[in-house]
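Handoff note, outgoing to incoming analyst
You'll be picking up this chain. Sequence as last confirmed:
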Amino acid sequence: MDIGLRMGSVKVEQHNPEWETIARNTIEQLKKILKNTAVDIQHVGSTAIKNIRAKPIIDIVIGVSELDNILPFNEDLKANGFFFCGQIHPEQYLYVCGHDDFRSHHIHVVTYNSKIWNDYLNMRDYLNCHKDEAQAYSELKESLAKQYAKNRDTYTAKKSEFISSILQKAEIWRKGL
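Most recent structure output, in case you need it:
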């Protein structure tokens, strides 16, 4: 199965159950490398949401007790195809899999049980339990992908209001469980 996209480009595809297998295998590989440094590792992002369209890039979030605990593993991670990109967003490190300007995986490292950690899981779980909202998100992604196929930054920015709304609902929903 082909996964991945060129940097900056956007294409969404129908959900593929193989994404879950790829994510599970990646998580197992990361657990072997990181051992107890990773408090938890989860498949997140749109490829983890059933029945919606997604960019064919696997998103994984690694929860660590202290953000910098991951840094001593950079050489081992690189040797296994996980390339350190730095702190792209506050309180989060990014690793990618791929070559040149092609990316198949985004590995987000955050502090376990932080707001960022919880947002990743809440959005995934909420949309997996709320099919109508998941479908609305899928339709938005498909529409934006057609409009901004060569501009991932704009594609991402145009989704932000919807994502913020879902995160608010998801946090309330999670507290009610």
